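Entry 14. Structure prediction run on the chain below.
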Amino acid sequence: MFVQTPKTEDGITRPGDCTSNAIAPFIDTLFVGTNLASALYISGQDNVANKGAAIAVGAAVASLWLSSAIYGFYFTSECKGLMEAGPQGSYQRVRVRRTVLSGLPAPLPPATPPPAYDEPAAAPAVNAGPAVPPAASQQRDDDDPLNSLHPRKIMAPK
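Output returned:
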C-alpha cells in the first residue's frame, strides 16, 4: 500500500517515482512475526475463550501482512534495479517534450476525380402492341368516405 511501483508505458519499464527503500516491507515482516507469535502463544494457553477462532484470526492477519511484505520487497528490489541501471542500462527515464500546435493542420490535397462514366447504349425499342385508350373517368360517389378530404369526416348523402 505504501510502495510506489515502477511505471510501464509502451512496454518499457521506467523507475519514475517508485519506492526503492525497503522499510515498509520490513515493518510488514515485523507484523507477520508478532501475529504468528500471538497465535502460537494463544494456542499454548488453556484458559482462552474461543481459542480456535483467535488462532484462525491471528493466522489470517499474519498471512495478510506476509502478502503485503512480499509485494513490497518485490517492487522495491525492482525499483532499485531500475535506478542502478541508470541511463546506460536498457531502462531509461524518458522525458517527453510536448509542444502546442500553432494553427490548424494543413488541408489535405484534393481527391482525384472518379473515372469518367460511360453512358450505356440505348436499348432497342420494344413494340408493345396497339396503344390502349385512356380509361373513361368514373362518376364520383358523394357518400363514399374515401372521397372526403378528412378521413374521419363522412359526407352525408345529398
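The longest strand covers residues 7-9.
Filed with the rest of this week's runs.
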